[in-house]
Amino acid sequence: MAGEDKKQQPFDSKAASSLVAELRGAFASGTTRSYQWRESQLRGLLRMTDEHEQDIVAALRSDLGKPELESVLYEAAMLRNSCKFALKELQRWMMPEKVKTSLTTFPSSAEIVSEPLGVVLIISAWNYPYLLSLDPVVGAIAAGNAVVLKPSEIAPATSALLAKLLGEYMDSSSIRVVEGAVPETTALLEQKWDKIFYTGNGRVGRIVMAAAAKHLTPVVLELGGKSPVVVDSGINLQIACRRIIVGKWGNNNGQACIASDYIITTKDLAPKLVDVLKNELETFYGKNPLESKDLSRIVNSDHFTRLTKLLDEDKVSKKVVYGGERDPTKLQIAPTILLDVPRDSLIMNEEIFGPLLPILTVDKLEESFDIINSGAKPLAAYIFTNDKKLKEHFVNNVSAGGLVVNDTTVHLAVHALPFGGVGESGIGAYHGKFSFDAFSHKKAVVYRSFMGDAAIRYPPYTNGKLRL
Ligand code: NAD
User: Fold this and answer.
1) In this structure, what are the phi and psi dihedrals at residue 293, rounded to the nearest 5 degrees?
2) Which of 250-259, 261-270, 328-337, 447-456 is the least confident region?
3) Of residues 134, 125, 127, the one with CA closest to residue 169
4) Is residue 210 in contact with ligand 1, taking CB distance under 6 Å?
């Protein structure tokens, strides 16, 4: 835990249990429920991000070689926007929502009261380790909960920074960071929580959900999947390619949950699409992308090996039409495009989560919907088209966490939209008010007076009452 000597005090089940007990005491005192506490904690997060932006950039560079602009825009600024939006809306969110009543309860009034759930656990992933750790924390504290955050051990510099800064800027009687890997997370998962919010892969998502089930604890699971991009003809191909590139390689070199996983286009359009992608990639990252300062590296050697295995499968390696270079010493893989990879290849059967982009080709674009719908439901799906019917068909027939027409990834930045998966890409959603709701119980309250006491409710249930 922040400020403690981990060697002398391993974070085991006993430590986890006493941490939860401590936070339960703090929650029971009522401190976290007040508007003032919630506001001060959100302001603390904002100040922390403002005052330590360069430390955040340095930690992300150390963990991922993340370019400064990506760190500032997609981690620090997005977190700031979340805090500011919550601060602006908090009073409105906290207000009970009046609802209509029915004749059965006449006369009465009713409202939905949002109450904090209690003590919540947030387990986050390594790819956007600052944003993905703190964005759910924004929702949890806005909703008035005590929080334990477990950042990812795979981004150790950011994890250490979070532990240090949250200790300095937040109310440590109610908000704590536990650093660690599987043993520490397992100890935490043994405890009874009021909600568990997990971001990461589906295999661990299942472990989290099974642990939560023992205590009937509700979960939000922010998972991943293979997010497709459908590309139609008759569009501005240059703009489409730039938007595909920035959503893929400009997002942590493809290590992003909503990065495009693969493209589907027609056999006719594919050669032109590949050409434009190549040109634009060269404009952005130069002739030798392994030297580019504008691409993150692969997070660690395990993921580097996983990705090269996908690329080096016999039936896949011969399909590379651009890129394929790698440098194991620097953990770098160049932006790589593959054309017509077999559907039964490894790369088409797991989430890529890296800089490789396969293109599948079809005779008619409508076939793409069957391809997408035949797999697990993705976290996002994108289409580039000017065809109104095709757009409608896409929106009405493709099931994914979120969709974007004529761009990629930008739905993430719209506060009014829920962000989350469906099916294997996740359970529940957050962002904006959805974050507040994810960490609140919606309590149904009916107010009655002593007037209008209908005798029909009460026994004896005579035939006369039936005929009324
Ligand atoms: P990760 O390896 O950092 O794991 C996530 C968390 O799970 C970590 O805190 C880790 O300590 C914990 N963990 C790992 N193994 C565990 C175990 N056996 N028991 C208990 N806890 C364990 O991250 P990852 O899973 O590699 O992240 C990548 C995946 O996350 C991708 O599938 C990606 O699509 C998904 N993702 C989703 C979102 C989203 O918002 N939906 C965002 C980012 C990443």
Assistant:
1) -90, -5
2) 447-456
3) 134
4) no
CB of 351 shorter than 6 A to ligand 1? yes
Which is catalytic among the residues 70, 75, 222, 351? 222
Evaluate whether 208 touches 218 at the Cβ level (below 8 Å): no
Q: Which residue has the higher pLDDT, 352 or 464?
A: 352
* Catalytic residue status for 111: no
- Rounded distance between C-alpha atoms, residue 23 and residue 18, angstroms: 9
The reply to whether ligand 1 has any atom less than 6 angstroms from the CB of 379 is yes
User: Distance between CA atoms of 196 and 218, rounded to whole angstroms?
Assistant: 7
Q: Please give the helix or strand (H or E) that residue 62 lies within, else none.
A: helix 53-64
* Residue nearest to ligand 1 atom 9, measured at CA: 152
CA dihedral defined by 364, 370, 374, 378, rounded to 10 degrees? 90
Cβ-based neighbour number of residue 133 at 10 Å? 28
Find how far residue 402's CA is from the centre of its chain: 12
The pair of structure tokens assigned to 158 is 């950011």
257 is catalytic: yes
Query: Residue whose CA is closest, atom 22 of ligand 1?
Result: 182
- Token pair belonging to 258: 């909503």
CA–CA distance, 248 with 260 (Å, rounded to integer): 6
pLDDT tens profile 9-50: 789 999 999 999 999 999 999 999 999 999 999 999 999 999
With helix as H, strand as E and coil as C, how does 425-450 read? HEECCECHHHHHHHCEEEEEEEEECC
Residues written for the chain: 468
Residue 302 Cα to ligand 1 middle (Å)? 14
Determine contact, residues 45/170, Cβ cutoff 8 Å.
yes
Is ipTM strictly over 0.90?
yes
CA dihedral for 437, 188, 191, 7, sign (positive or negative) = negative
- Cβ atoms within 10 Å of 301's Cβ, excluding its own: 10
Pick the catalytic residue: 257, 280, 351, 424? 257
Share of the chain above pLDDT 70, in %: 98
181 CB near ligand 1 (under 6 Å): yes
Q: Could you tell me where the DSSP H helices lie in 298-415?
A: 301-312, 314-317, 367-374, 388-397
